[in-house]
Amino acid sequence: MRTIAEPYTYAEEIKKSRFIAHAAPVETPEEAMAFLEAVRDPQATHNCWAYKIGQAYRFSDDGEPGGTAGQPILRAIEGQGLDHVMVVVTRYFGGIKLGAGGLVRAYGGVAATCLRQAPKREVRPQVPVQLSVPFEAMGGVYPVLERFAVTKEAERYTQAGLELALRLDAADLEAFRRALTDATRGKARVWVE
């Protein structure tokens, strides 16, 4: 999955109206709405927006004619193959009406330019993994953890051995399981939470 690496802003004047696009990577709808509240300008004519987070998406025309602002912003996000992104386009009306087609081009175009210019990053989906290993097999675990670059979220010693809560690239899960089975002679248990 591709997303933008950091918040990014782009501004453009179209027929005396000023359009400012603010884009940011977001993980949840709540985070998207918090970004909207942070960048919206109550003095502006409109603060139109859209977000896409996996299969979830939402958009708003914020008073512009239906379908002329939020949907074009969403199409700009999807058109660039991005995910986990929120875009807010703020418009300061300049006195010249753009018409429905002009609004679609303005909102979609400003959002697309903003996203095109924003730095991108690849994000690999991660899964939470639990690992349980008896003390006598622990020696083989740490080299496997390093090889797969897992993120250790919690570590707990029990009477039976070690329990770890990890985060791992989803694509590496089966290879990780096989490597742990080999390294511990089948004594490690791995399961996805």
TrEMBL record:
This is Uncharacterized protein family UPF0029, Impact, N-terminal protein. Residues 133-187 form the UPF0029 domain. GO terms for cellular component: cytoplasm. Gene3D superfamilies: 3.30.70.240, Impact, N-terminal domain. Pfam families: DUF1949, Impact_N. Belongs to the IMPACT family. It comes from the Bacteria. It comes from Marinithermus hydrothermalis (strain DSM 14884 / JCM 11576 / T1). InterPro entries: EFG_III/V (IPR035647), Impact (IPR023582), Impact_N (IPR001498), Impact_N_sf (IPR036956), Ribosomal_Su5_D2-typ_SF (IPR020568), UPF0029_Impact_C (IPR015269), UPF0029_Impact_CS (IPR020569). GO terms for biological process: regulation of translational initiation. Residues 15-115 form the Impact N-terminal domain.
